[in-house]
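dumping this here before i forget
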Amino acid sequence: MIDINIFENKKAAYFTLGCKLNFAETSSIGKALQEQGVRRVEPGEKANVCIINTCSVTELADKKCRNMIRRARREHPGALIVVTGCYAQLSPEEIAAIEGVDLIIGTEQKLDLINLLRQHAERISSQNNSQGLGISHIIHTPTKDIRTFSPSVSADDRTRHFLKVQDGCDYYCTYCTIPKARGRSRNGSIASLVQQARSVAENGGREIVLTGVNIGDFGRTTGETFLDLIKALDRVEGIERYRISSIEPNLLSDEVIDFCASSRHFMPHFHIPLQSGSDEVLKLMKRRYDTALFRNRIEHIKQVMPDSFIGVDVIVGTRGERPEYFEACYRFLESIPFTQLHVFSYSERPGTKALEIPYAVGSQDKHKRSQALLKLSDKKLRAFYREHIGQPLRVLWEQAEHDGMMLGFSDQYIRVAKPYSEESVGQLEEVVPKRFDPAMLSLTF
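structure:
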């Protein structure tokens, strides 16, 4: 156990599971600790404190979180083990049952870690000898009382940054636990987010991805709109690119699409959750749109931005997804001009309304449906890439090295590879790709 009253010369290890929002928040936690004198461990070093930011979107995610906690304890014996994130909010008692966990911090308190670590040190120092040690301390606010919006922006060594603009969700889809894990929809002000974007630019960042739980719902707590936000961000000097992460189709208005098409810096790249291409299943899910609206959004994007990349989320095997409903989903997806699918197999979550739906899909059928959609996705993605062979692409090169190659992404989010060059990191370069590399799933020149 470390004396957390003294941050100086301490080392921290960070473990993150789940969405880009989690990664942005972990980065903010790391920055706060760094300002107190705590540095990130180098490979092979032992940490004094382990921060584990968890996900709970599926049963598998819960299992991965438990394994990650045990891994952190094994790799960093004697370190203070701090667990936060969605799993910590939803199932703190389950985490407390894992040997070696010291602190469990819920959603409301996640980014107040410095004060919580000091308070924990005071509790430990006030105990006699080892009395109370080995017992997890849970700091947790009921979901209905979660109100705080904590700003976060990733600050890792990539050229792409993730800016948290919104948190929480007021949608209660029958399969989803996120509203219980994250609380009600809330957001930062446009002025504060513009300032964070300026700071990214001042520190050399070239690209920002807007993240949140339901970012199209931006403005609940400030009376502003998502369209107002992207217009203000587009005026920030120094940021070459913005991308909009997952946005609900009913909140992706024609005005937002048209602005992106005419803006200086918003890229022709959208990520839109469909979840099912069957109207019957969408009703069972309590989604707020139908396939006709979704088709309209996709077609409007392609009308004003013909070369746009469109990623689509789909869940297979949800309760109520009868074979004929999946067939309708498949046919719908075949008929729309998406670029890539992100396919998820349905996982039953305790406390969700989906458990009241009587028809359950077996694991083998879930697998078959998943494989069918992945095959369709691969076909569409490869076709999209090949369409851009011989076409000029503006690529922003990233730092990571892969067997002597470096990767970058075009405006359309096409992955491009070339031999590694340190001088190219963070630079925009116009290239004309000559071939498709199936091994790296990228274009090369």
